[in-house]
Write a structure and sequence with these properties.
alpha+beta, Nuclear Transport Factor 2, Chain: A, 36% strand, YchJ-like_M, YchJ-like, UPF0225 protein ACFQ34_24720
């Protein structure tokens, strides 16, 4: 079930590529996100399309919740990457600040977060985030 209002044929993460060529390749396991920002975008897209398996797989084991339930009435409408620090090929830590826009029961909202990512064994993982 898709819970995103992105333009048909484009990826919900906001990049101008089709879902399958963008975040879909990470969701299927065909590739791993090479940067913290791309992992952030792919996780946003996983929320948008309801892929809890991907969200759990890309969540660091130390901070991963035992259960993950998505709000069925929440529709993700737009992602804005506000800033990024680190999170590239030869680093092991990264921070991505973003604003994720949504509607829930017809009311608009924004999740503003500074997310921390770590790279272990060459794979980026979401560690935690601080909401503003």
């Amino acid at each position: 079930m898709t819970r995103s209002s992105s333009t048909p044929g484009t990826c919900p993460c906001g990049l101008p590529e089709p879902y399958d060529d963008c975040c879909g390749r990470f969701h299927t396991g065909a590739a791993a996100a090479p940067t913290a920002e791309l992992l952030m975008r792919s996780r946003y897209t996983a929320f948008a399309v309801g892929d809890t398996g991907y969200l759990r797989r890309t969540w660091h084991p130390r901070t991963r919740p035992r259960r993950l339930a998505l709000e069925p009435e929440q529709v993700w409408t737009r992602l804005e990457i506000l800033s990024r620090s680190g999170g590239v090929l030869f680093t092991t830590h990264g921070i991505v600040e973003f604003a994720a826009h949504y509607t829930r029961r017809g009311r608009p909202g924004v999740l503003h977060e500074h997310s921390r990512f770590v790279r272990e064994d060459g794979v980026w993982l979401y560690f935690d985030g601080t909401e503003d």
